[in-house]
Design goal:
This protein is α/β, with parallel strands linked by helices. The chain folds into two domains: 166 residues, Rossmann fold, CATH 3.40.50; 123 residues, no CATH class. The protein contains eleven helices and twelve strands. Helix 5 links the parallel strand 5 and strand 6. The longest helix has 18 residues.
C-alpha cells in the first residue's frame, strides 16, 4: 500500500506559529510523525511522500491546498491518504478534514485523519471523512497512528468497517440496520438495570452532556442599563499588548476607549487566524461597534456605555478554556457595574 501523508509546519519541522504562513511543499518519503506511521504500516506498505503546509496558509487557501494534494496523490499512485493527527489544532484539523474530503471525492481513494472531538474540523468533516479520535494530548501519537493504520488498511482492502466504538473513529451520525439477538425493549431493560446497579453500559444513541447555563433575568429598561462590548474576534490595540495567539488563546484583555467617540483604525489590529479580518482592520466597528453604541447612548436608548471592551481570540478554543475566560470576563464586568453585554463574533 502506497500512502501520502499531510502534516502542518510544526510537525514538518519548519517552526511554530511564526512559520504558520509557510508555503505548501512536497517531500519524498516520511517526515516527522510520518516516520512512525511508516513503521506501523509494516514492510509491505510505505509513506511515499509527505505534503507539508503552514496552518495559516492552508486555512486561508483550502481549495488551492486541496488541488495540490489531489495532484500529488494522483501522481504518486497512492492507495491511501492520511492527514495528521491534528489533536486540538483547529486550523490544522480544518485543513486536514478539507483535504481528506477532496481527495476522497475526486480520486475515490480512502482518506483518513485524526483529531480531538473538540477540534473545529471534527464537526465540519466527521460526516464525510473517517476521523480517529486522537484525544487532546500529543503523547497519544503512537496509539492514534496505530488506530489510523488499522482503519486505513481496512478501507484500502474494502473490508467492512465496524462501529465507532470498535474502530476508534468519531461517530458520523449514520444509522445502520443490524440483526441482533435481543429486541430493543430487552436491550433497554438491560441498560436500565446496569445503570441501577452502578455497572458500566454503552448507550446506543450516545448523548454528549454539557453543563447547563441558566438564563439570566432580562434587562427590562435599557435606558437605565450600563452596556458593555465583548468580542471573541481578536481585536486588540496596536502591538497586541496581551500577545493573543491566532488560535487557542488562553488570555483575554480589557481595553479602554474612555472619552472616545469611535475606534480609530490606526490604533487597532486583529489577532485571529480563523477568518479574513482585513475588513475589521479597515474599520474596527465592524466587530466592536463603539460608534453605534455611542449614538444609542446620546439618544437615551441605553443608559451608559461601559468605556472598555473585552476581547479574546475564540479560534479553535476548547470548551473548558472558553468557559474559564467567560467566567473571568463576567467577574470583571459585574465588578464594574455592567448590566448587560453585546457579544460580537466573527
Amino acid at each position: 500500500m502506497r500512502v501520502v501523508h499531510y502534516i502542518n509546519q510544526f510537525f514538518g519541522g519548519i517552526g511554530g506559529e511564526e512559520r504558520a504562513d509557510s508555503p505548501l511543499e512536497v517531500r519524498p518519503g516520511p517526515v516527522g510523525p510520518g516516520r512512525l506511521l511508516d513503521q506501523l504500516l509494516g514492510e509491505e506498505s510505505h509513506v511515499v511522500s509527505t505534503i507539508v503546509c503552514g496552518d495559516n496558509l492552508a486555512a486561508e487557501n483550502l481549495d488551492d491546498v486541496a488541488v495540490a494534494a489531489i495532484s500529488e496523490v494522483k501522481a504518486s499512485g497512492a492507495d491511501l491518504f492520511v492527514a495528521g493527527p491534528c489533536f486540538q489544532a483547529g486550523r490544522y484539523g480544518t485543513a486536514a478534514g478539507a483535504v481528506c474530503a477532496a481527495v476522497k471525492e475526486k480520486l475515490g481513494i480512502p482518506a483518513i485523519t485524526a483529531m480531538s472531538v473538540e477540534n473545529p474540523g471534527a464537526d465540519l468533516y466527521r460526516a464525510s471523512v473517517y476521523i480517529i479520535d486522537s484525544g487532546d494530548d500529543v503523547s497519544r501519537m503512537q496509539p492514534t497512528l496505530a488506530a489510523m493504520v488499522r482503519l486505513g488498511k481496512k478501507l484500502s482492502a474494502g473490508e467492512k468497517v465496524g462501529r465507532p466504538s470498535e474502530e476508534g473513529y468519531l461517530p458520523q451520525g449514520a444509522l445502520k440496520s443490524e440483526f441482533v439477538e435481543k429486541s430493543a425493549a430487552s436491550r433497554l431493560a438491560d441498560m436500565l438495570l446496569a445503570k441501577m446497579r452502578g455497572e458500566s453500559f454503552e448507550a446506543e444513541v450516545p448523548i454528549q452532556a454539557t453543563e447547563p447555563v441558566p438564563v439570566p433575568p432580562a434587562v427590562t429598561d435599557l435606558s437605565q442599563a450600563t452596556v458593555a462590548l465583548v468580542t471573541d474576534g481578536g481585536l486588540v490595540p496596536k502591538g497586541n499588548p496581551h500577545q493573543f495567539p491566532l488560535a487557542f488563546s488562553r488570555v483575554w484583555g480589557a481595553y479602554s476607549f474612555a472619552g472616545e467617540e469611535a475606534l480609530a483604525p490606526d490604533d487597532y489590529e486583529v489577532s485571529h487566524g480563523g477568518y479574513d479580518n482585513r475588513h475589521v482592520e479597515q474599520d474596527p466597528h465592524r466587530l466592536v461597534p463603539v460608534d453605534t453604541l455611542r449614538e444609542l447612548e446620546k439618544h437615551g436608548a441605553i443608559g451608559k456605555l461601559h468605556e472598555e471592551f473585552l476581547s479574546t481570540t475564540g479560534n479553535g478554543n476548547p470548551l473548558a478554556n472558553s468557559r474559564r475566560i467567560g467566567r473571568e470576563m463576567a467577574k470583571r464586568l459585574k465588578d464594574s457595574g455592567v448590566d448587560t453585554v453585546v457579544l460580537t463574533s466573527t
